[in-house]
Structure formats: structure tokens, C-alpha cells
Fold this protein.
Amino acid sequence: MSKENPIIHRDLSWLSFNFRLLQEATDRTVPLYERIKFLAIYSSNLDEFFRVRVANLKNLIKVGKKTQRSLDFEPRELLENVLDTVNAQQEEFSNIMENQIIPDLKEYGIRMLRMKDLKSGQKDYIENYFNENLIPYVQPMVLMEKKIRPFLNNGALYLVLRLLDLDDKKGKEKYGIVKVPSEFQERFIVFPHEKKGKKNIIFLDDIIRHCQKIIFPGFKILDSFSIKLTRDAELYIDDEFEGDLVSKIKKNLSKRKIGPASRLVYDREMPVEILEVLQDVFDLNDFDCLPEGRYHNNADLFKFPKLGIESLSEAPLKPLIINDLVNGRIFSMIDEKDYLLHVPYHSYKPVVNFFEQAAIDPYVTHIKIIQYRVAAKSKIMDALIRAVKNGKQVTAFIEIKARFDEAANLAWGEKLELAGVKVYYSMPGLKVHSKMALITRNVKGNEENFAYFSTGNFHEGTAKIYSDLGLFTANKKLINEAKIVFDYLETKKRPKKPFEHIAVGTFALKAKLIKLVKHEMKLASKGQKAKIMLKMNSLEDSEMINLLYDASKAGVQITLIIRGICCLVPGIEGLSENITAFGHIDRFLEHARVFIFHNGGDELIYISSADWMVRNLHHRIETMVPILDKKVRKQIKDIINIQSSDNVKARRIHYKKNNNYRKTDSEVPVRSQMETYYYLEKILSKQNSL
């Protein structure tokens, strides 16, 4: 945290957010399987963090002191802080798993067995399982220091064994490596034919451990410990750094064909002499090695066996259907009024129907869409292909720099091109992160246009678990500027006129946000009510943070609802005492961005694809869309007010990273995600009764 206007480094703030997920696994009011899921999410997030963020820190350390002076932090010091934080969190993870989750499973008749727990029949079962399913994949190897350096696959699980060669009279210990083939087999094996009401489960790792003597005949197995290597995901640095620093990092990366180790995770019970051998064999230093518990790759907990016990999971919420938007008259309905879609509370069917109806509607002439992330099996993409076959002109802009979705997006691009879709790909130096679509109809010579603006991707899968807002509209003010965005993406020619309604990243989006904040400051200086409510995933841009500090000092009341990174420090007297910040961790991932400015009582409400990060405000094509329809504006404001009243799942964001639950004056418990569902259900009930 800097000494003047305090700004927490984004990596430390992100670790605090991820710890909120870990804390959720300790909440016994959360169904047990959901708590296990939070452990999985925490672990999955941390893997990506090391592949990208920690890998970047290590690259920054390598570029040298002279280049590092262009940074506003010291990379080595930050890395040490990050690793200390992660080590503490990993100890908490082990404590939660061993002392809370496993005992709680046992209360429901579910036992996690280890080798010492196995009875003779169970031993026979796993030995047969090993012989029939695992032998071809275990890849045993005896390590020979400085002679044999086996390649460990990124994220794969291995066991390191202490071996004693029975034919070696000197009795010198050797070390072996065995792969745990979790990419080919289920990680959790359920024993069959157990007593009624009892379920016994064993980790795949422990089956390998039990069968080690089969893998290494002629050796006595003294002990074994699990390890996992995470590799650098490389070249994801353009969003944050530029100029000389980027060129030096890329020059260093270009010398490598395969990402180097960014983390070796090992069982903290493993003796130091074995760790030293591994460091020598795999060319690792102390920064590269992090202790964990007995088991790694805990993202596999996503697939923990359900065993048919419904009470251990959240009761499903039936998605709400907006009937107007799932019939064959979707375009005439949107022409009459704007519609707000709030997934996953609302069904995603209207978005799919938007494209499927366009594909068969005889009056539709053009379909345009921006694809950032999309489902592997997508009805939306299928509809685009069907539309081309039906003679429509279809244009898709595909961002192939979407992290970890590059291959999938390229594959969809090729498939769409083969079908006849006009495909445009990434722009140099920019990511296109906007989420919108435009459909044009020609009815007896009259052009009609319909747009869908969203805070989330056109992804049928994530729409079931990500909380996002979408707007269906035929408003000409918004339509005309959506056309300008698509024209720019297709022609690469900058618009001749500034955007008046939609704010677009790299085209004065940040300038508009600054203007809106300063307007509230001006009102406050006149003694008028001034208020800002911002909901987003991440707040990191230092210029915007300092502006919010200035607004707080001017008397503007600021509420921040932030799921992830928050580099601003709220509640500091004389600086940010008028700023409150909190975030929700619950069954759905909060992903929507909403910006509300009081504006002297005539509120301005926007939904956006953009967070307030440097990359979003400087290096991406984003869209911030004003909500012009009064009924939709009221719905969004009501939803944000519900979230602001949460006293069940909201946690305070604080620089001390303690993540305490946020309490309100109300004695009535308000769980905002559930209350949002009930609120939207009531609205639909009224509409359907008319």
C-alpha cells in the first residue's frame, strides 16, 4: 500500500478476494457440496493467478533494476508478500478440508478413506482397479540428478517416492516419480457394495500410493509425497505494461519454447532433502516452491461425487421466463419497449431466441455480433450459421486474445467462415471486450434495428452461473451508435463524430466517467446531494481511484459493490470516509457492471462491459450504455438497492483483508441474490397477469 493516497497492489487485493471464496467454505449455513465447490473455485483461481500474475512478477524481476524503475512497486518485495499470503491461505485450506469438510461429510455417511483405513476387500478392489485402469498411465521413472530431467506436464499430478533398491548393498536412497493420471480417470473413486447409508470414497492419488509396490518391483517404498508443477502462461502482459518493459519481457520469453515453472506445489510434510533434489532436477529456486497439503489440483473438487444426496446442494432456482421474448414476435415486442434480462435469475432463452428468430425471419437482412467467449456447443453460433444458409448477411467480430479461450475462438471463427459468415479478428494493440449484437430487418422498404447490450458474454454455459445484465432495445439513439462501433470494428476507421450516448473504450469512455464524477463533486461543493453507486468486478485504475478519493473529500457519498480487485482503501478519515465498499460471494458469480450517478435527482444509470482497470479503460474496446427506459431504470436501481441492503452474503472490503461480513441496521436478514430472484419473480407475475 502506497504511503500517500493509499492504493493496494492489485495482486494483493485479488488474493484478498480469493480468500473470501475460501472463507465461504467455512460457512455451515451453506450446503456442504456448495462449500466443497468454493474450495474448487478458490483452487482453480489460484492456478490461473500463478500461471499469469506470478509468472509476470518473476519476469519483472529478471528484466533488471534499470527497467524496474519504471514501475511503481518493487517486484521482489511484492512477490515475497504474495507468497507469504498464499502460504497462509494454503494452511487455512488444509485446515478447512481436514477439520471441517471431511468430518462434516462423515456425518452424512460419506467417508474419505486413506490407505490405513482400507479393509481387505477394499484393498482387493483398488488393486483390481489399478491393474485394469491405471497401469498404462502412471509413467514410473527413477530420478538421476543432473542426468535425467523428466518433463512434468503443466498442472499434472505426480508422486515423488523415496526408494530403497533391495539389490543395492550400500543402501543408498533413490527417488522415483509416478504420474497420477487424473486427466484420464476420475479423481474420486467411490467404493461399490458398501453398507446401506454408507459411502466410502478414496482419492485416485491414494490408489496409486497403495499400489506403489506394483509399480516399482525390486524396491522398498519408504514414503511418497505429492507434487504439481504450474507453468508460465506467458505473453499476457500487453494489458498492463507497454513500451520498453514489454519488449524486454517478450525478448526474454522468445528464447523459450515451453513456459517455465511458475510454481512447484509440494506436500508440506515432504522432507527438505527431497525438495532440494527436485529443485536441482527441475532447475527451481525457493520462490518457485510452495507447500500445500497432501492433495493438489483441488479444482477437481468440482467433480466430487454427488451420491444422490440433494440436501447437500443448493435447491435449484427455476429460471424465470420473460414470455414476451420467447415467442415468435420478439422483434415486435422489443419495438414496443425495452426489456431488461438479468441472468441467471431470468432464463437465457430470450438471447438464444433473438438469434434463432433472426435466422428464419424473412425480413431480417443483417446480423452482427461481438464474440469474446462462447460456449463449446452454442445454439447462438448455430443460429448464425443457419442465418447465412437462409440468405442473411452475418458478421462476427471474434476476439482471439481472450485469455485461455484463444484456441476455442479460432475454431469457432474457422467454422463460421466456412459457413459463409464474414469474420473479423482481433485488432493490434487492443482487445475487443464489448458484448453486443445488432439485427436489421427490412419491412416493405422500412429499416428496423434491434440491439442487445450486455455485461456478459454470449455464452449459454456461463449464463447459468454468472449474474449479468442485458438490455434488448430498439431505441434509435443507442442503435445508431451501436452501428458506429460495428463500422469501426469492420473498417478500422475511427468515427468522425464523438459518441453522444454510448461511451466506448479508447473513444473517451474514461473521459466520460471522469466528467460524471466531477459533476457530482461540483454538486457537492454547492451543498447539494451528491451520490455515486458503482458495481463492478474490479477497481484498479489509479487515476480513477484518486478521483474517487477527491470526490469523497468533496462530500460525495460513494458506494462500491465490487466482487474482485479493489485497490482503493475505503473509510479513511479525511480521504475516503464517504466511501463504503463491499462485495458479495454467493451461489452465483457477480459479473454485472452498473454505474449510477445521482445527477441532482435526475439519475444517470449505465450498464457496461468495462471494469475500472487500466486494461479496460485504455487498451480495450468496451461499451457503457445508458438506460433510457424508465421501467428498466427502476428495475436496475431496485436491484442495486437490494444488493446494498445485503447483510448475509456481503463482506466488507478492507485493506487489512479480514473480509468481515457487512452488517446493516436492519434486523431482517437480506440475502441479495435470493431477494433479487423474488423481486424479478414478482415483476413477471404482474406482467403475466395483465
